[in-house]
Amino acid sequence: MLKIKKEELEKLYIDEKKTINELAEIYGCRRQTMSNYLKKVGIEKITSADRTYDRLSKEIIYDLYVIQNLTEMDICNKLNTSPNTLSRLIKEYDIRKNGIVYQSDKRKSNKDLLTKEFLENEYKTKSINIISEETGISVRVLSNKMKEYGIELTDRSVAAKKGFIYKYGVTNPMYLDSSKEKMEQTNLEKYGCLYGIQTDNCKKSQKNIGSHSKPNYYFSNLLDKNNIEYEREVNIGKYIYDFKIGNTLIEINPAATHNITWNPFNKKIDKNYHLDKLKNANDNGYTCINVFDWDDQNKIINFFKQKQKIYARKCEIKNVESKELNEFLIKNHIQGTCMKQDIKLGLYYNNELIEVITFGKPRYNKKYEYELLRLCTKAEYYIVGGTEKLFKYFIKTYNPESIISYCDKSKFSGDVYTRLGFKLIRSNIPSKHWYNMKTKQHITDNLLRQRGYDELFNASYGKGTSNDELMKNNGFVEVYDCGQSTYAYKKC
């Protein structure tokens, strides 16, 4: 039974405007349980409509959308609302960003947009479908008007390529067909290497943005700010790696060039490409970290910062409250927090939480009694024997028959599981992720298959439509990681 002070709940629910779902997650209970408890302690339930309009005021949306320049999907995630609700409020509040107006506004000025000059200029770089999306004018009306003006409509294949070029920033169709081979040949003749970034001058001028791709430049800036020594463009075995820090190789994998859906050089990479580079690094005695667009690079940097050493024998173990645990994981764990963490153990040093381990019922394999869900250390510390102390406490206290856990191979080697007595039972093939470079939205293929496009995006395409095709048609590309390793622990 919940035992939470009424004042504490009122502060979160009334003052901080937390939803019932958020409260349930904070205190580790079901939504209905939290709803009943609010009623029991005499806190009046706020309707979803009141909560939505209370939380999504014009000032808040304007600040996030215009001042902070967040995408609509980021705002939805931040304020826990649906895209449809947010879009409706943006139109209702008449909020505009960079002078762009929304469809309800655009339709008022259709006459101005249907001039011959406007349509000719737009159609040079955009497909008719994209013009329709941006103006709010139907494809049929646009098509008829363009025929009236004598503007020649291209066939479907050319129109599709035109839309592709506009969406992904490639302005010359010839660049897709022949530019890469020409560029490589020129570089080989001039510099003796395929890419300019591999030249000696380029490696020496590491602080010059012109010497890197932009994602690599930003990562090197983070390394410089944190005084972390590194090498650039290191040849190891049959591959070149972006960064080398000690015995660790770093691969920066921007979705624009590391997806299998399309590529600006007209050469798709293989779905095993990232796994192959990981294996090559391991075979040559290195660990390897793959960084994707959806990763928080600051958390990657935390792996390499100088840390304060603490011995586990000087720490004590306590159960961690859900709110403190979630805040700790969101700040320190590479994947943030997760649901259904039933057992939450923390290592405290002078009453400061510095390491956690959590367990729950297995999510995917019910043959095991527990799943190790999260294992995380505070970024500023290196705890000698901390993980072993927490795990031994769990074994002694709960006497589990079996435990299962999963390791993301793109970030971790799995050595910690071996130290704890786990055995590797499976190493999976790379998993597919969907990423939209325009909205910065990341969706796992597993979630897409579970929920479907219609449910995820509040659409109504219905049965018979392909989730994959809908994702591609709406700007998502397919990116493969390095796969997962599955580890199991069984009682002797």
What's this, in brief?
By secondary structure, the chain is an alpha+beta fold. The protein is built from 26 helices and 16 strands.
Keywords, separated by commas or semicolons:
492 residues; alpha+beta; Endonuclease, Chain A; seven-stranded mixed beta sheet
Structural write-up:
The structure is a single chain. About 5% of the residues have low confidence. The longest helix has 13 residues. The protein folds into four domains: about 90 residues, no CATH class; about 70 residues; about 120 residues, VSR Endonuclease (Endonuclease, Chain A, 3-Layer(aba) Sandwich), CATH 3.40.960.10; about 90 residues, Gcn5-related N-acetyltransferase (GNAT) (Aminopeptidase), CATH 3.40.630. It has about 500 residues and is an alpha+beta fold. The protein is built from 26 helices and 16 strands.
Total DSSP E strands = 16
For CATH, the homologous superfamily of the largest domain is named as VSR Endonuclease
* Overall mean pLDDT: 81
Helix content: 40-55%
